[in-house]
Amino acid sequence: MIDLDAIYRAESGRVLATLIRLLGGFELAEEALADAFLAAAQQWPRQGLPANPRAWLVSAGRFKAIDRLRRSGRMKAATPELTRQLEEEEQAMPAEPQIIEDDTLRLIFTCCHPALPPDAQVAMTLREVCGLTTEEIAAAFLGKPAAIAQRIVRAKTRIREQRLPYEVPAPADWPERLDVVLQTIYLIFNEGYSASSGDALIRHDLCAEAVRLLRLLRELQSGADIDGLLALLLLHQSRAAARTGPDGAIVLLEDQDRSRWDRALIAEATALASQAFARPPVGSHTIQALIAATHAAAPVAAATDWRRIVGLYDLLLRADPSLIVGLNRAVAIAMRDGPLAGLALIEPLTKGELASYRFAHAAEADLLRRLGRTAEARAAYLCALDLTDAVPDRRFLEQRLAQL
Amino acid sequence: MRYMCLVHFEPAIMERASLPERQDLDRRSLAYDEWLRESGHYLASQALQGGDSAVLVRVRSGEVSATDGPYMETKEQMAGFILIEARDMNEAVRLAAGIPIAEIGTIEVRPVYEIPVPPAP
User: Fold this and answer.
1) Which site among A242, A292, A387, B52 is 20 to 30 Å from B28 CA-CA?
2) Distance (Å, rounded) from C-alpha A45 to C-alpha A211?
3) Do B88 and A134 count as a contact with CB atoms less than 8 A apart?
4) Long-range contacts of the stretch A167-172 (C-beta < 8 A, 24+)
5) What is the C-alpha separation between A243 and A326, in angstroms, rounded?
6) Considering only A176-180, A393-397, B35-39, B60-64, which range has the smallest mean pLDDT?
7) Domains (ranges, CATH) in chain B?
């Protein structure tokens, strides 16, 4: 039995990536991709799986596109020049593996082009690179398929109208463009790991797609930032099983059953993070991964090396001087030096710029609880609850309130 | 998945067109159906006569009524449909964009709803 769906998920992004380069645009390439898979569905069950399915699909897609351009006047975009060029290239098959790999990078960078809005980058990447359907993307993000479909259509129109080049960015632009790609992958993972709405805390499919994308990116291109982000995502994933209780509520890091953490993932990620740290400049994902690895190294919560974690947060604050990092650093300081020291840093945040950030109020509430200031803790938990829609998060906060 | 492409257009535009223009559109529409068939997307299609040829049927309290269509007030009319098989909504949109009448009218793309079979009473 040939599982065409699985092959589609694994290969469609790479085949599409090459067809876009060969045919000069998304539309022709998508048509050719559909044709290629139709041909595969007809021929593979009878003739067996070809030795190199990817090359077979590229070749079939290109052949179908040429055939169609020749026969019909339907496609105005098809200039005689393109047809001739394709015919000439027909002889030059198979393409160099390196060029094909660059095609996938081209596609990833095009889907994550800074000229596209972030939600369009996410939708484009999941559909064109990962081979998810519009309906699957909509289900993962709890959106409507019609809205996702429009987002993708608009993104493609923008790529065409603004003539965004189908290329791997030049070395000078590389760091900035790679950042957008990593940010997009992080967004995909985050939505899967900490769903902003709905009643399942972790949507494993999105997490798995983000990790798959990153592993793919890493196959194509080495980079400390890529390793650092992969390490971070794997460390988050290693705790997935211990992160929710039987009732679906969040289990805090300190209360998690550490025997349920995935030790193999932790070992892989810790090695990746150390390697990335050895290659400066050290990016913020790598530092975050090292923080997560420090937690993972503690056999019990009480054995956590908070001195090291505060040191890493100091480093992180320099790489990424944001309020959220400041908040997390304050929590680490509370663990190292006591709740009062943390509270002194958090209070200005919840009264100021993080007033509408639910995690800031939850952190403040927790420190107040530990200090025995129950009434203030209750008010802070209620503040956090007010700002929370996701069902597991609400359940957790309600539990804490009940325990006061 | 199956998607219904409902074709809407303004009849006035068609009436203003010359005979060769109309024949060209018809030719291209038939050719597109043929192409959909070859590429495995085609399930069914049908063009419809104008809304002024329609009869509306209702049954209320067992009484059957039949009246003329009230379609004349709307400018765009449903002129036909193509039922297609597509991998997802975005593929359906791409296929709908190739329907020649999309150049003068509007194609409404709707995913097919499978009515769940109710349990026997």
Assistant:
1) B52
2) 31
3) yes
4) A167/A106, A167/A109, A168/A102, A168/A105, A168/A106, A168/A109, A169/A109
5) 24
6) A393-397
7) 2-111 (3.30.70.1060)
Instruction: Report pLDDT digits (tens) over A245-287.
Output: 877 777 888 889 999 999 999 999 999 999 999 988 899 999 9
From chain A, pick out residues whose CB is under 8 angstroms from the CB of B28: 74
Query: Which tokens hold the place of A380?
Result: 């802070």
How large is the average pLDDT for residues A198-218?
75
Place of tokens 């449909």: B81
Per residue in B52-69, pLDDT tens?
Answer: 888 888 899 989 988 876
Phi/psi zone of residue A195: left (φ > 0), alpha (ψ -120 to 50 degrees), beta?
Answer: beta
For residue A75, is pLDDT > 50?
Answer: no
A103 or B3: which carries more pLDDT confidence?
Answer: B3
B93 neighbourhood in chain A, CB within 8 Å: 149, 153
Nearest to A30 among B28, B31, B94 (CB): B94
How far off is chain A from B94, nearest CA to CA, in Å? 8
Mean pLDDT of chain A: 87
Closest approach of chain B CAs to the CA of A134, in angstroms? 6
Does the distance separating the beta carbons of A31 and B88 come in below 8 Å?
no
- Are A134 and B39 inside 8 Å of each other by CB? no
Nearest by CB: B89 against A27, A35, A149? A149
Quote the tokens at residue A184. 């997009």
